[in-house]
Input
Amino acid sequence: MSETSTVAVLPPPVPGAPPHTRAPRPERWTMDNGLRVIALPRSTVPQVVLRMAFAAGSAADPAEFPGTASLTGGLLTEGTQTMTADELNARLDGLGASVHASVGHDFAEVEAVFLSETLAEGIALMAEVAIRPTFPEREVERIRAESLDAILSRLDEPANLAEDRSAMEVFGPAHPYGHPPFGTAEGIRSVPRDALVAFHAAHYRPGGAFLVASGDFDTAELRALLDDAFAGWTGEPPSIDYAADADAAVAAGRLVVVPWEDAAQSEIRIAGVGLDRLSPDWFAGSVANYVLGGSTITGRLGSNLREDKGWTYGARSYFLPGLALGGWVAETAVDVEVTAAAVQEMLGEMQRLAEERVPDDELRRAKDAMILSLPRYFETPSGVAGRFVTLEAYNLPHDYWDTYADRVEAVTAEDVQRVARQVFHPDRVVRVVVGAMPEESD
Amino acid sequence: MSTIISSTIRIPSTTRVLANGLRVVAHEDSSAPIVTVHLMFRAGSRDERPGRTGLAHLLEHLMFEGSQHAPKGHFDDALERVGGSNNGSTWLDRTNYYETVPTHAVELPLWLERDRMAFFLPMLTGEVLELQRGVVMNERRQVIENRPYGMADEQLHELLFPADHPYSWPTIGYMRDLEQITLEDARAFYQTYYTPGNAVLVLAGDIGAERAFELAERYFGDLPAGPDVPPPPAQLLPPAPNGARRVMEDDVSFPRIMQAFAVPAYGTPDWIALDVLAYLLADGDSSRLQRALVRDGRLAQDVDSYLYPTALCGVFGFVATARSEVEPEALEHAIRQVVDEVIANGVTDEELTGAVRRVRRDQVSELATVEERADALAYAATVLGDADAVHTVLDGYAEVTTDDLRRVAAEYLVPERGATLVVIPRPGQDDEDEEADDE
Output
């Protein structure tokens, strides 16, 4: 369309008043055995998402066998007291259901997605998987071998190496967060089957666990199905000892360059200790991070490295929540030749946020983006489930989403600067480069 | 309306064509107070010429660099201020631009899209081109070159398609071509394809059809129709590659086998049957390939199958990564055995039912957002000629029989129609270890 002269220029539209977002209000109850249930029924799509979390993450790994939690999670769907793995898989696949376990640092999770009409059988299978796995020897050996291969494969990718190394530098080798949640090859190779059975018995307990249900179901029916499926399952909450001394962990100011032969890019991570998820500064930190790198293109990191310089496909930053300790990471991947300059630019942006008051207009944009995007968070069953898993996992107040907009709104430019000084200060972070860093004499 | 997707998935929509040829599709769903504005052009990397690959995608990047009344930075900035999100993407057959905003701000993305449909070229400068050329080259490095197995898809397509087939080159483009693209190339592509008659505009979400059409008319009705667009390439199943093979070395720890077959185009009954077959073969731990390669056979760490919903022809593929000490040929052989077994003896009713349910499970998840539904409608309108044809596809799964699955396997998934890429670890790393031991 070249003949632009004939087209009228229309005035930019002025949006009306934004809608007031109402977060879903769950129904909560605690089952007799101590399992907390958060139910969020909504019949927009014929689907139910169930997320069940246990205090069974890698932080609970026995010291001699890192990887126990991960292997235990991986074996939940590999055979139960009433079904072989093959029988279980055939039933799940026949229902069109998906049931998967994942293991993080703090929690192990079983996530199930069912079509609404298969909910009853689905919940029974999910309970079977979560509380009655049998760890058959043959499947243990297969999952063990696959896990060892996966550890090797993972390190083929520079981005993964950068992630692992920056966690190690920030949290230290003694802290569970200093290691990937899947453990070590040595731990996975050597952990005996009995240790998996024992880990399951100790950590997959209704006390300390919770279940979030979201989607197209009737709450009374859900309650009855859960009572039935989890009948007879008991156990006190496990206690997990995050013994390591986190304060001593950060090798702040350190630069680590991991050479990668013939790298097409350098993967850069600038990382440090973040904020406690319950910190009164959480919202100020979220706004500060949004300004710096919350949005890949318009954040200061992205505007500088991508939109101004064209050095990267994107740059962003984010907080990592953790029960014991929070983390914070800024990341990008750039042309190898500009690696050192890119690190300097990132540190410069962090410093600028700590030293200069964020302009009102930029602060306004960050708050509006965070507040007005809320409706999208609650659009789908899995979106809703995710938002409420966060509340339960980090013991956030029940009215968290109801007060979210007000708390973001209350953040001031001074708050942003104060938290930026604390979290983003160049002296408080480590720099990790996987690739090459020509011209660097640090 | 509370139930948009019930037991049969429906995406009800109304279409109106503006005088300049722009097709406008409205889909109302007020479950959340948001609206997606989706603009799709029938232009993708298939419309490039050899030597200028990557042009369609580079132009997509340039479209975010500003138009006359929304200069650089304004597009993202303005949408962010109303809580909106936006993105664009380029693939073989189409390029799309979409924004999701709270209901109150629905006119903003329309105004922004209007501006870059009518007032883009004066802002397209050499400086803007050089900057985004750099960004795209870094995208290629990050997504393709610096990622294990990242170059494999590109090589597999070179094997599967003859060099003059428009699916033979990668959408992101070859590095040597990205270096060559000129301002004139970008201008010409824009002038040729970014016209109202070659576009579909979808408004989906918390907006009624009449209001959607009224806004579409206001923001797009006065745009000139522009020149006629070259007719799209005809549907084209390439000649069988006769089992073409290539071995590619990569910086990886484990070999991987990748196989692809050109099959009928998106939306045809055979394409739908092949989609069910892809699920039946490899989705779910009880599926035939998971059992033969991973669970019982213990040859592979993972195995997957896929089917591209593409317009000129579909692409059906298998991917499997070997376990330690397993040769890739063993994976290839095992995959072949599984497919041959389907061809020889068919599949069971239970397998078919489970596979269709799993397709449906994923469709329900994928179509849970208005953003995804807008994309599905725009794609059906662009590729199948009619937004409502999305239901031809969605409903087609119920018609698939076990005989269909056996037939499409026998017709399309035979060795001579396939191309095979074997990715092997680059030799040398072991040698280095040995040298280290010697010291």
Notes: Chain B has two domains: 14-220, 244-438.
